[in-house]
Each structure stands twice: as C-alpha cells, then as structure tokens.
Amino acid sequence: MQMLNQNQQIFEQIKKAKDILITFGKTRNGDAVASALGLYLFLKKINKNVDIIAEEFQSGEAFSFLPGFSDIKTKIENLRKFIITLDTSSAKINQIKYKIEDSSLNFIISMQDGNFSKDDISSHYNNFKYDLIMIVDTPDLESLGKIYDDNTDLFYKIPVINIDHHPVNEEFGQINLIDLTAVATSEIIFSLLRGDYTNYIDEDIATCLLAGIIAETRSFKVTNISPQTLSNSAQLVSLGARREDIVNRLYRSRSLKTLKIWGRALSRLQSSLDDGLIWTAITHLDFVKTGSKESDLNEIIDELILTMPKVKAIAIFYETVKNDKIISNCLFYANKGLSALDILKEYNPGGTKHLAQISLFKPMQEFEKEVISLIENKLKNLI
User: What pLDDT digit, counting tens, does each position of 283-339 carry?
Assistant: First the structure.
C-alpha cells in the first residue's frame, strides 16, 4: 500500500472530520489571523462545520476588513454535554420537572407506577464538540492561552494539525506541516490548497492569504523573500486577491488616534549600542489623551522596523490599568538571529521568539531602566 504524503494525510483528516476547530496564539500577528481566516473560509466552502476561536480577540484590530473576521470567537462554548441517565425499566414516568434551589438543580419525577433507586441513576459526558483541531502560526500549545489552559483534555484527545513556518515550533501536533522556507503561514496554506483545490480558492480566500503574506513581509520589504513567495503572491492576485485593498488598509490608512500615539512614541525615542537597540515609553495618560489603545503599539514596531532596518531590537514600554492599579508592560521585538523570549527569560515572558511581552506591578521609569539594562547586557554579546 502506498504511503500518503503529508498533504494527503491532512486532507484525509479533514475529510473524516465533521466539526473542526481552528485556533491560533494569544499573542499573534497579521499572518496568524489571515492564514486562519483563509483556512476557515476554505473549510466552510467544502461544507465542514468549523469554528475559529482565539483568546482576547479585539474586533478593532487592523485585519477586521478581512472576510470572516467577525466570525472569530473568543472562547470555546458547549465543548461537552453532561448527561444524566435514569434507568426506567423498574418504573413508568408520568411527569418531569426541575427546580433550581441555591446551588442545586433538582429534577422532580412523578411516577405512574413502580419506584426508582439511586442505583438507577448514572451520569457521563458525551463526546467533544470537535473531532479535529487545526492550529496555525503558533509555536506551542501554551501560546494559545486560555483556549488551551481551560480545555487541555480536548487538545490531548482530539487530533491536532499544526501548520507554521517558524523554526521554534515545538511540533506538538499529530501532523506537523512546518515549512521553514515559507515566509508566512498563509503561504503554506496556499501551497496546501493549490493543485487539487485551486478551484475552491475564491476572491475572499485569496485575499486573506495574500494579506497574511503582505503582513509578514511588511509589504514585500523584508530581506528573506524568495522567488517562490513572489510567484505565490502573483497567483493569489490572479485568483482575485484584492491587493490594493490590503495595502490601503494596512499601510496607507492611519487614524488620527494612531498618528497621535505614534507622535508621542517617536518624540521619546532613545537608543544605545550604536542604534542596535531603540526604545520608547507610553503612559496610560497618553492612551487617554490620544484615544488610542494597546493594540496600536504593534504598528509602531512595524514602522520602526521598516524605517530603521539596521535595528536589532525594539522595546516599547507602556502602562495599563487593572483593578485601579497601574501595570508596567514591555513589548520587545528581536530581529532575525535573536530570541526575544531568551533575552527576557528572567521575567517569564509570553509571546514568540520575535515579539515577547512582559508585565510587572512596578513604576514604569524603574521598570524601563531595569529592563533596558538587562537587554543591553545581553545584546552586547549577541550583536
């Protein structure tokens, strides 16, 4: 019997599945969102029941223009049903009612004849809601946040297909489609669908996948673009991808709120290590006065990467408020060849190798000084 290749194995799992969950990391970039949406729209098109779920997803993110974005949910609901079984062989039921008293749910059963005993009652859970999980652009299960933490049994008992292009991926799936030559997970999804399923790639699917490639390459301005990436992008345009709309939405339209917070960030820009490290700080008051929010900070990092290509690391310090307490945070970007997670490991960071995040209940000036000192000491030996 001929062995199935990896792509064939993936489609065999998809064919067998009735209900599919697509998810991606809590700390995500545009490629994660776009690749998940492209896959979601394809699965819907081949008549699969599919949910796309990611923790703390904000509806105002930059990729809200993509088809299917409004379908993204923030938590898994009704994962399993709890079933109470009553053996009725020893009695006939006339009527069933229920009453909630304090923290108890009481079932009141009127019998026509016969009696029940406690041995007639049993309980169990039914099967999981999903029979296949597809995870995109995520290095490990822990990066899914509460989607994983609150449903660990699901991820160990249901087959997982793991699709990514990052070398730090832990290959946690039963099938791991990891292509280190691809510049984006969206490019891998396109390669997976291209061929037997090209006819299913409509304008919406093509737009999502091209948006992921454009986001990951910062509109084709990074250095690791291959001829294959350019060819794939051209094919997506020929399939109807709305390139002008993507570029306009991601790079040519900025709200006044965004420009104001950028101005404050740029006015406080500092550097060291011959401009190999740059950083800035945003206060909670800055967010209030400009009407901007935390999600706008990722765009600042993207702009700094594009305009200062020699920079090896970027740190943005900012304040948030929780339970009337100020929290100091740091978004830290590390260029190719560096690991943001390793550099900040003393603070137990979250995120990815290239973009990590840390938070502490500490005054921001003190926090900034402490973290920059740590980063400088580590970068001296790395750049």
Answer: 999 999 998 888 778 777 777 776 777 788 999 999 998 888 889 999 998 887 788
Torsion from C-alpha of 171, 177, 182, 188, nearest 10 degrees: -140
Give 331's strand partners: 316, 357
CA-CA distance, 162 to 156, in Å (whole number)?
Answer: 13
Q: Which pTM does this prediction carry? A: 0.77
Helix (H, G, I), strand (E, B) or coil at 224: coil
Q: Residue 133's beta-bridge partner residues?
A: 21, 160
Give the C-alpha separation, 215 to 218, whole Å. 5
Taking alpha carbons only, the member of 73, 38, 81 closest to residue 146 is 73
Burial class (CB in 10 A: 0-12, 13-18, 19+), 257: middle
Tens digit of each residue's pLDDT (9 = 90 or more) over 6-54:
899 999 999 999 999 999 987 667 899 999 999 999 999 999 999 999 9
What is the four-CA torsion angle of 315, 63, 283, 364, rounded to 10 degrees? -40
Distances 122 to 28, 125, 268, 358 between C-alpha atoms, Å: 43, 11, 65, 47
Residue 148 CB burial class (10 angstroms; 0-12, 13-18, ≥19): buried
Count other C-beta atoms under 10 Å from residue 40's C-beta. Answer: 25
**129, 80 contact by CB (below 8 A):** yes
Instruction: Write out the E strands in 54-137.
Output: 82-86, 91-101, 104-114, 121-125, 132-136
CB neighbour list of residue 229: distance below 8 Å, 6 or more residues apart: 182, 183, 184, 187, 213, 217
Helical axes 203-216 vs 30-45, angle rounded to 10°: 160
CA angle 133, 176, 62 (to 5 degrees): 65
